[in-house]
Amino acid sequence: MASRTTITARQRRLGTELRRMREHAGLTIQEAADRLGTNRSHVTNMELARFGVSEERVRTLAANYVCPDKAYVDALVAMATERKRGWWEEYRGTLGAAGLDLAELEYFATSLRVVELMHIPGLLQTEDYARSVLSTAVPGWSPTELRRRLSHRMKRRDILDLDDPPPCTFIIHETALRVRFGDQRVIRAQLDSLLESSDRPNVSVRVVPIGAGGFHVAGISVTYATGPVPQLDTVQLDVAQDAAFLDGESQLLNYRAVMDRTEELALSEKESRDFIRETVQQM
């Protein structure tokens, strides 16, 4: 079997879950290989996502590992058998892997919760606002690369228009409403667009006013993507022009609590819309 030339975050996650399932069963790689009738390197390559895995193989591994969670196994099968080429693949080789992995994560999420401190969330950005945000990168990008990144960001927004779009909660700090990316026309258009987005049935916009004080994720931007089962949830953090993806059990438990607490600090949806309108009027 030929090894993959590129490995996506979703493929890596499947391999990680196969490893976790084996470890939960208390089996070594050699013991897993013996039960499967193969060698150690084959099991290792599956767990490192170097090889694809068939539905039959996933179910055989689950049986070998005595995994009783049918919903979890079915979700792993869906990950293993997904063959559709995502739109983000057209950017592979021209944009970094983190941006492509984020688009993939958003596309397959069953729901999203996003906390943004300094920017309007990418999924809700207008083109002019996004161009201004992307233009602040250090070091700067060439005009061609800037156009590619802007195009990619605009395409990400399409998940909000899917036939069955994921429910999305965007928790936005007041600072993000007031920081000037672009001139006043750009900012006003962005806030007007934000209000329009908040009317979507699948979109909840919540504002955390400065007066609410500090909170745990102050200083970073967080996306919590819900998977088909809780074990397959993922946290994405923005870190200096890149992204970190977290999926450990304790990490997920921690960030669920953090997101819940942050949402408690935020204004209600109606109060948030009123707050945004007041911000526009003050410009």
Overall helicity: 40-55%
Question: How would you classify the quaternary structure?
Answer: single chain
Please describe the biggest sheet, giving its number of strands, its sense, and whether it closes into a barrel: 6 strands, mixed
| Main sheet: strand order | 3-2-1-4-5-6
Radius of gyration: 21 Å
The secondary-structure class comes to alpha/beta
Proportion of β residues?
5-15%
- How many helices in DSSP terms? 12
Residue ranges: pLDDT <50 for 5 or more in a row? none
Q: What number is the mean pLDDT?
A: 92
What is the third-level CATH name, the topology of the largest domain?
A: Endonuclease, Chain A
First and last CA, distance: 61 Å
The fourth-level CATH homologous superfamily of the largest domain is Endonuclease Chain A
Overall spatial form: elongated
Order of helices and strands: HHHHHHEHHEHHEEEEHH
Structural domains: how many = 2
Number of strands: 6
CATH architecture of the largest domain: 2-Layer Sandwich
Indicate the CATH class of the largest domain. Alpha Beta
